[in-house]
Design brief:
Helices cover about 25% and strands about 20% of the residues. With about 575 residues, it is an alpha/beta fold. A hairpin with a 6-residue loop joins strand 13 and strand 14. The longest helix has 20 residues. The N terminus is likely disordered.
């Protein structure tokens, strides 16, 4: 391997990667020629999610950060070594040169300063990251997702496993002309405090309404794909040219949970990722010999990788009632095992495995442009790594058989159980570490909501729409004035940038007004943001209420439930045998 960052083989000493430049007298990194690298993508467009329409010019609330691309760097070719100086006559050169100790070589390599080491390592890492970046495919989903990744907030990633049959050895799996539908779908919610995460599977045979969606072509042109009602969820991708942004919009339509990002992989991803980590352990209660998926396993625990790993996640007819819902449980078991293997010391302390895993993961993924940089993907991975496996919950959208069918082939959302599950995820409620979260929430309430309250008539507030449905700001204004007696209130249209959560910003001298308004609206303590007030219509300081995407309607409380609903679930730290 070369010094451009692809790692180095164990038999190559770091000192041999540096050569003395006779023109400058300095040691320089020798970069050997490598395969042509994919071009570094140019600056991406950022698109805010659509906010509700308003009647006045929006007041600038925040100034979104701007990403800056690092220009691509051309790699120099191999350097020639200087020829050895001629020996004086009669003097013989020894055939074998005494080997320097590792410490002496490092001293020569560094040129006398640790900073030199750091510069060299950073340069090699940079080139390798650029190489990995060329592996990643991206799709611009526009306003279907977030414009950037935040390490300070909760986030939702839609993981899509497509059934497209591209790649070596995959043509034999069923329909070779398949455009690639959303075959496996997991809504991954990672909590704001990183104590927990929820991975909710969405059945491919769930009957849903697919909304209109705008797709963005490679040349920047846009096309709106018309929505359809009463369709299988898997047709939200691929059908009629729908892209992953359409699947993200469909998930939000069904669950009310906004998607921030997506990660999509095909059959090859399962094969390459499991091979990169030298296989993952799975368990079956009885021996399996499935003729369709070609899965052949003895009873008990086995290690699968490559084709057998793909067969394991594709198998339906050997588990449960041979339907998709039982296959989902098997896939959740497999993902839990893969997570444990990828985060194990055996993987994290093995440079060779890490390099193979980085190559396999970046080549296997298609992601939205907001997380398309390898540095951003690294940030996502590091945030996920903070969540203990015991607090990663696997569950499935609560469903019932489709009552419109005589032969039960599809399912519909269970309207008696599903809304509580969706609300818990949307409100960042853990399905495993509820007690710990409760303590933190109570502490926050005590700190922010403790104190006196003003009278409703004394509250001065400006209301903005920051991503709530159209007309929400005016609806809230009417409710405040007519129902609650908050007469010194104004509706000022759209906020400058959309927000995922409703916020209430106030100056210290209006804390009593903010507490009272939070009581009236049922706002959680996390919604209160000490800061600055602004001028009201009466020319006096006013607190600022910005309705976010979590807004449920005027007078509807936004306070999160104290506990998640009881659902069929498993956690990533436990091994479950498929039956």
């Amino acid at each position: 391997m070369d010094a451009q960052g692809r790692g180095r083989a164990d038999d190559i000493d770091p000192a041999d990667q540096w050569v003395l430049n006779p023109n400058t007298g300095d040691y320089e990194l020798r970069l050997q020629a490598s395969a042509p690298q994919s071009p570094v993508p140019g600056p991406r467009r950022t698109a805010s999610r659509a906010g509700a329409t308003g009647v006045a010019t929006p007041r600038p609330r925040t100034v979104p950060g701007q990403d800056r691309e690092v220009p691509g760097t051309d790699l120099p070719g191999p350097r020639r070594r200087r020829p050895a100086p001629e020996e004086p006559p009669g003097r013989r050169r020894s055939r074998t040169k005494p080997k320097k100790s590792r410490g002496k070589k490092i001293m020569l390599w560094t040129g006398g300063g640790m900073a030199f080491v750091l510069v060299g390592v950073a340069g090699a890492a940079y080139f390798y990251l650029k190489h990995l970046e060329g592996n990643v495919n991206t799709t611009d989903v526009g306003s279907a997702g977030a414009s950037g990744f935040s390490k300070d907030d909760a986030f939702n990633i839609l993981i899509i496993g497509t059934d497209k049959r591209t790649g070596a050895g995959n043509q034999g799996y069923g329909d070779t002309g398949n455009v690639g539908h959303a075959d496996t779908n997991i809504l991954l919610h990672v909590s704001k405090d990183r104590t927990n995460a929820t991975a909710m599977s969405i059945p491919r045979d769930l009957i849903v309404d697919i909304p209109d969606c705008e797709t963005i072509k490679d040349d920047g042109s846009k096309e709106v794909i018309s929505g359809t009602q009463g369709q299988r969820f898997n047709t939200s991708l691929g059908q009629s040219g729908r892209d992953p942004g359409c699947t993200m919009r469909t998930v939000e339509t069904v669950t009310g949970i906004p998607m921030d990002h997506f990660m999509m992989a095909d059959f090859n991803a399962v094969k390459t990722l499991t091979t990169a980590v030298d296989g993952v352990n799975v368990c079956v209660e009885k021996a399996v010999n499935d003729k369709e998926s070609k899965l052949n396993l003895p009873a008990g625990t086995s290690k699968v990788e490559g084709e057998q790993a793909l067969a394991f996640v594709r198998t339906r007819h050997s588990f449960g009632n041979q339907g998709d819902l039982d296959r989902i449980k098997v896939q959740q078991q497999f993902l839990g095992s893969l997570m444990r293997k990828m985060s194990s010391g055996d993987t994290l302390t093995n440079p060779s495995k890490l390099l193979k895993l980085a190559e396999a993961a970046t080549k296997a993924l298609t992601v939205d442009k907001a997380i398309g940089k390898v540095g951003t993907l690294k940030d996502v991975a590091l945030e996920l790594k903070k969540v203990p496996p015991k607090n990663i919950t696997f569950t499935t959208v609560p469903v019932v058989d489709n009552p419109a069918e005589k032969v039960k082939a599809t399912v519909v959302v269970d309207e008696t159980r599903a809304p509580q599950v969706f609300s818990a995820i949307k409100d960042d409620v853990s399905f495993t570490a509820v007690k710990q979260k409760q303590k933190k929430e109570k502490a926050a309430v005590a700190a922010r909501l403790k104190g006196e309250r003003s009278a409703a008539a004394d509250i001065r507030v400006n209301v903005y729409n920051g991503g709530a449905p159209a007309g929400s700001a005016q609806e809230t204004l009417n409710w405040l004035q007519i129902e609650e007696g908050v007469l010194k209130s104004s509706q000022l249209g759209n906020a400058e940038a959309p927000l995922s959560k409703t916020t209430l910003e106030y100056s210290p001298d209006q804390a009593d007004q903010a507490r009272k308004l939070a009581d009236l609206m049922g706002l959680p303590a996390s919604a209160l943001k000490p800061g600055e007030s602004e001028e009201s219509a009466q020319g006096l300081p006013a607190i600022v209420l910005t309705l976010g995407k979590d807004f449920k309607g005027a007078g509807v409380s936004l306070t999160a439930p104290v506990a998640a609903p009881d659902v069929d679930k498993s956690t990533a730290d436990k091994t479950v045998c498929a039956s």
